[in-house]
Structure formats: structure tokens, C-alpha cells
Specification:
The protein is an alpha/beta fold. It folds into two domains: about 5-215, no CATH class; about 250-505, Alpha-Beta Barrel (TIM Barrel), CATH 3.20.20. Helices cover about 20% and strands about 30% of the residues. The strands form three sheets. Strands 1, 2, 3, 4, 5, 6, 7, 8, 9 and 10 form a ten-stranded antiparallel sheet that branches. Strands 11-19-18-17-16 form a five-stranded parallel sheet, with helices on one face. The protein has a four-stranded parallel sheet with strand order 12-13-14-15, with helices on one face.
């Protein structure tokens, strides 16, 4: 794993978090990394949470360990200080680490949501990033180069006067064990002090559980809660995933067709938008109107002549930073990528170098998430499928570490008369790959199927994994080929509308 100096922006500022250190002498925990779980035997987990059986339960864990380390003083331990401090000034990077002991999941329940909360005493404005931490640090032994970190878990902006800082850590909590996190600041010139000397104002991890038996235990006359999966045709098995999601189901259609396609679907929650890096005004204008309409823009930009090497060398930094400024001005969240579906347009090495350089620039604003959108057939079970090693040529660890979302464009193969592998298979394989390599957030830039069951299968695969942030169906005939029509009509349109409805019913946040 790469040393920390390569992980954090040189433009960070200070974050100081203080809390009651007497807790640290009374509990122990195990660090969590999404791809590293060693060390569990060395530290005991908290006892299991027990409670009478209810539809939902909550448990709040308080911090049991902390650390504060700096790049400029890599051998210095700051355990005697009363504040966790995070900042970077002129390249002097300081990070804070915090650990929570997580109890065993209550019998008959599953984790529904996990939130990490800090109480803020004073702030101007900032943008903060939370990552997981590997099991290589202790309260009095932590060193800068020994505190390796994992993927981004969540980002959170801070406004002037804001008193509470929250992160969604649902995908990064083990049962049982412990969860360790590293917090850093991306931008802002501020000092934040977290309340101390008060047990209820320590950093805290709230775990919300939902009963797996609630539906079965309900009276026979009661209507069952709306499932997260879609109402699939008889030939397609419904998803058995959890009942909450943050995914926004959207659509991709040419500008001239957008209004009519939107009227047919009855409304969507995201829109795929395409543009050129050298002339982004049209895409930004569309994104602005989409944000105003309450939809998430999913923006894809291409570089002139596919000059990936030029991007990696910094020759497009002026254009990238100009685009970032305009994205930051949007009055809502957005996702952005460069050169979607890269297969066949250049070499894996040039693509990886481009993304490693460009994504930290594009993703700097607090309201913007940046990452790749690659070819979905990489996760096919058929001949086009790629091995993990082949995918790693395009998406090596240095790219994954700066990707807030990893997305793919995923279609069903074959023709309407002879349909091939459906998109749901590829999406499910994408989820499995994400687990293997430690990706915290996923997306689907485009998807489509040749029949209703394929549309449903794709929707179920997205809704089965809470890591998905967005999924947009391609709804137009502009890219039709012999035996294939991509515009959603009839049963396929009905299946897509069911996806939208299921996601809206289950969405939290």
C-alpha cells in the first residue's frame, strides 16, 4: 500500500477534533480496511448488542482510540494531545485517526445504516474526506508511514456556523470488530474544534438495524413494506437485498428527445450528459437546469483527439480547473468523468495515467464526485469478460484511490430475437469485483436490455448493492443496430418505470 503523502491534497487546512480520552483506557478495537482484515485476533470486539425484538434498533458506539500524525514529523506520536487534528498547509499534511469498537449484529437484524458524527464548535467552511484505515496503528504507537489508509468512504462539506459533521459509513462497518477511519481536509481555511470533556460529545458511530423478521411477523392483513427489488416478471427472480438505497435512477437520451422520453417515463432522478473538455458550456448549461429540476447530472467529457497522455502530463490542467470551477458553482451535487467506455480508444497505461492525474482536480469541489465510467462488458461471464488483473491495467490502485465512484456502461448482448447475457449479470459481477478490490461507491452510466426481464434484472442488481449512487437507462434509437432497438417501449418501459418507483420508495438521503 502506498504511503500517506500520496493520498492527501497539499491544500488541506486544519481540523481539530477533541473528545474524552478516558474512554481509551476502557475499550479496545480492531482496525478495518476494506481490503485488509488482519489483526482481528489481537484485539477483542465489543460484546453483542441484545434487545427485545422490534422492527428496528439503534446502537451508538463511542470512539475508543485516536491518533494524530503529520508528514513533516513522521516519527512523532501525538497521543498526549487532547485534539485530533487534520490539516495541510503548504504541503505539511496532518491527518487524524479514530477507532470504534463495533458489536456483533443483533440476532434477527441486519445493518440498515451507519453514521459517523462529530460535534463542531467553530468553523468557517471546509470540505472533508473520510477513508478507512488499516490495522497498523495504536493510540501510542501510530506513526505517519504506518497508518495506511483505504478507499474513500464519504465526503462532507462544512458550512459557516455548522455544528454537526456527519459521514455515511454504512459500507465500511464490520460485525463484530472495529472500524478505524482517517479524516482529512480537501479545501477550506478553517480550524474546527470538536467538543471535549463530555461523553455525549465524543465522535460517535450510530448503527441502525432493521429486523429481518418484521415482514414475516406482521399480521396477515397488513400490507408488506415495499421491497427494494423490482416487481419482476415471473421468469425473473426478485432481489433479496436490503430495503434501503441511495441510488438515483436516471436516463440518457439526446437533447432533442429528452422531453418526450421524460414524459414517457413519468420522471427520473438523474441525467447522463455528454460534452467536450475544450467546450463544456453546453453540458454545464444542461447540468445547471438538471440540478434545478432536482436531478443528478452524470457528466462525461472527452479530450480532443483522445489525448490521454497530454492530460496525464498536465497539458490540459487549465481546462480541467476551469471546468472544476464551473462544476463547483452548481447548486447541487454532480458526478463527472473523462472519456467513458475507453476500450479501443487508447492504451490502459495512458488511460490510467490520465485518470490518476485528472480525477483529484475534477473531484475537488465538495459537491462533485469524480471517477471513471468504463465498459461494462469487462464484467461479462462471456468471452469479452476481463480478469481482475486485466481490469487492474485500466484501473490500478492509484486510480481507485482517487475515484469517489467507479461506474460502467452496461448493456445486454445479442439481438431482440436472440438475446444474450443480460446487463444484470454484469452489474452483479461488478459488485463482486468492487468487494474484492475495496471500492466503496459504484455507478452505472448507461444500461439497457432487450426485453422486460433484462431491464428488471439490471434494476435488481443495482438495488441489491447499497454502494450504487446512480444508474441511468439509455432510452433512444440513435445507436440502434440490426435486430436491436434501444428506445424503451411497451413492457421494457414498464419495467424501467418499476425500477424508478422501487428506488424512490427505498431511497434514504
Amino acid at each position: 500500500m502506498q504511503d500517506l503523502p500520496g493520498r492527501f491534497s497539499p491544500h488541506q487546512t486544519e481540523l481539530a477534533m477533541t473528545y474524552n480520552r478516558t474512554l481509551m483506557a476502557t475499550a479496545a478495537g480492531i482496525s478495518l480496511a476494506l481490503v485488509a482484515t488482519s489483526g482481528a485476533a489481537a484485539n477483542a470486539a465489543a460484546p453483542a448488542t441484545t434487545a427485545p425484538h422490534h422492527a428496528s434498533l439503534t446502537h451508538t458506539a463511542v470512539a475508543v482510540k485516536d491518533g494524530r500524525v503529520a508528514a513533516g514529523m513522521i516519527r512523532v506520536n501525538r497521543a498526549n494531545l487532547t485534539r485530533l487534528s487534520v490539516h495541510s498547509v503548504r504541503g505539511y499534511t496532518r491527518i487524524g485517526l479514530v477507532r470504534f469498537s463495533v458489536p456483533a449484529r443483533p440476532a434477527g437484524y441486519r445493518l440498515d445504516h451507519a453514521t459517523l458524527t462529530f460535534d463542531v464548535v467553530r468553523t468557517t467552511a471546509a470540505a472533508l474526506v473520510l477513508r478507512t484505515a488499516a490495522n497498523r496503528w495504536g493510540h501510542r504507537a501510530v506513526r505517519y508511514r504506518a497508518s495506511a489508509v483505504g478507499p474513500v468512504v464519504d465526503r462532507s462539506p462544512l458550512r459557516r456556523g455548522q455544528r454537526t459533521l456527519r459521514f455515511d459509513v454504512t459500507t465500511a462497518v464490520p460485525h463484530p470488530g472495529a472500524a478505524s477511519f482517517v479524516i482529512s481536509e480537501l479545501r477550506g481555511s478553517t480550524t474546527l474544534r470538536m467538543k471535549t470533556r463530555n461523553r455525549h460529545a465524543t465522535p460517535r458511530l450510530q448503527l441502525s438495524y432493521r429486523s429481518t423478521a418484521a415482514v414475516a411477523a406482521a399480521p396477515a392483513t397488513a400490507a408488506a413494506p415495499a421491497p427494494r427489488s423490482l416487481a419482476a416478471p415471473a421468469a425473473t427472480a426478485a432481489s433479496t437485498a436490503s430495503t434501503t438505497t441511495t441510488v438515483r435512477i436516471g436516463m440518457s437520451a439526446p437533447t432533442g428527445e429528452w422531453s418526450s422520453r421524460l414524459a414517457e417515463t413519468g420522471g427520473v432522478d438523474a441525467r447522463r450528459i455528454f460534452g467536450n473538455l475544450g467546450s463544456p458550456s453546453g453540458a454545464i448549461s444542461t447540468a445547471t437546469s438538471e440540478v434545478a429540476a432536482g436531478r443528478l447530472p452524470i457528466l462525461s467529457f472527452k479530450v480532443a483527439n483522445n489525448d490521454w497522455a497530454g492530460v496525464a502530463a498536465g497539458r490540459y490542467d487549465v481546462q480541467l480547473r476551469a471546468l472544476t470551477t464551473r462544476l463547483a458553482a452548481l447548486k447541487g451535487k454532480a458526478f463527472v468523468t473523462l472519456h467513458h467506455e475507453p476500450t479501443g480508444d487508447g492504451t490502459p497505461a495512458d488511460y490510467a495515467a490520465m485518470m490518476a492525474h485528472a480525477l483529484p482536480i475534477l473531484g475537488a469541489p465538495a459537491n462533485v464526485s469524480a471517477g471513471p465510467i468504463v465498459n461494462g462488458f469487462w464484467w461479462s461471464n462471456g468471452g469479452q469478460g476481463r480478469t481482475d488483473a486485466q481490469i487492474a491495467q485500466w484501473l490500478p490502485s492509484r486510480v481507485l484511490k482517487v475515484s469517489e465512484v467507479v461506474a460502467a456502461d452496461t448493456y445486454q448482448g445479442g439481438t431482440t430475437a436472440k438475446p444474450g447475457e443480460n446487463a444484470g449479470v454484469k452489474i452483479a459481477n461488478l459488485s463482486k469485483w468492487a468487494t474484492r478490490v475495496g471500492v466503496a461507491h459504484l455507478g452505472i452510466g448507461e444500461y439497457n436490455g432487450l426485453n422486460a426481464s433484462s431491464i428488471t434484472a439490471a434494476g435488481n442488481a443495482v438495488l441489491a448493492d447499497p454502494r450504487f449512487s446512480f444508474a441511468a437507462a439509455f432510452d433512444s434509437n440513435v445507436n440502434n443496430r440490426a435486430g436491436v432497438s434501444w428506445q424503451l417501449t411497451g413492457a421494457r418501459l414498464t419495467a424501467f418505470k418499476a425500477t424508478i418507483a422501487a428506488a424512490r420508495a427505498a431511497r434514504v438521503g
